[in-house]
Design a protein that fits this description.
The protein is of the alpha+beta class. α2 runs parallel beside α4, α3 packs antiparallel against α4 and α4 packs across α5. The radius of gyration is 17 Å and the shape is globular. The protein has 6 helices and 5 strands; from the N terminus they run ββββαβααααα.
Length: 164
């Protein structure tokens, strides 16, 4: 069981800190909730304790996993010759997975794709969501601020991609 002060990732919103565990009555039933504060955007989210597993709540990665994230961000993208619609759904499922490595892959691939050919509105929103999720976790792991973390990430993309 998680505790107050734990740093966690809520796949739909990003990383934050559990500020409290509270009991609330909803539709006549009492439920316990984690109250999560997400520093990136200052959002507060309440997650029912009995739904933690189904929403994919997990602890942030340990600092020793950062080189693996850097490797994903700085490596060349895989197959880019798929239709935007298929690419969008593939990337969306990776973001929803909550896995930082898959989210980093989406950020890398969509950033590079945007350099080659402007992204659609939907893919641009997905890129922003993926970046927010990635940055929010790295901020908590690295202890840096949002801006310097974003600048650092942007410097990691492969050197020989168009637009660099």
């Amino acid at each position: 069981m998680l505790a107050v002060g734990d740093r966690v990732v809520y796949p739909s919103y990003g990383a934050g800190v559990i500020e409290a565990i509270e009991e609330h009555e909803v539709l006549g039933e009492k439920h316990h909730y984690y109250v999560l504060t997400i520093p990136y955007g200052g959002m507060k989210v309440m997650i029912p304790l009995d739904k933690v597993e189904s929403v994919g709540l997990r602890e942030v990665i340990p600092v020793m996993e950062i080189p693996k994230v850097v490797e994903v961000l700085s490596s060349q993208p895989g197959h880019t010759n798929i239709s935007w619609n298929r690419r969008f759904h593939l990337n969306l499922s990776k973001v929803k997975s909550g896995c930082i490595y898959e989210v980093a892959e989406v950020v890398r691939n969509l950033t590079i794709q945007d350099r080659l050919k402007r992204l659609s509105t939907g893919e641009r929103r997905l890129l922003e969501t993926a970046k927010q999720i990635l940055i929010s976790e790295l901020v908590l792991v690295c202890g840096k601020d949002v801006h310097s973390t974003e600048v650092w990430i942007n410097g990691l993309f492969p050197e020989n991609t168009p637009g660099n």
